[in-house]
Sequence to fold (138 residues):
Amino acid sequence: MSGREEGVIVVVWRRAPTLEVLLLHRSHFGSGFEGDWAWTTPGGGREPEEPPAEAAARELLEETGLELHLARVPSEIVGSQPDLDVAVFAAEAPVDARIMLSDEHDEFEWVGLDGLTRCLPSWVHDAYREVLQKLALV
Fold:
């Protein structure tokens, strides 16, 4: 055991007609919460012994109601975080995908690349952009 927090990130994107990324707003601190981790893509912690791909599919379904094909995407930015052991995945959503939020989030938005800057700290939005670049979407 590494002592690092184990988790997954799922960057969900669509073309509607331009590239948009799904962001979720954490409900823990209320609708006005704008601090670190207020806006994120779906994701979360892994259960003990849970493979990353299973955790990503579980978190995506729990947080959004979506079941999508997930592709693992290596991220140097996420990999350089000293306290995290996080696997990154990406998934394309249909334009008409219906989002069903869990209690963990109180709203969602599909945002363009400029909207990613609301994801804090800054390495988080940089990692999302990195994933989109590796998928040759930007």
Notes: The mean pLDDT is 93.
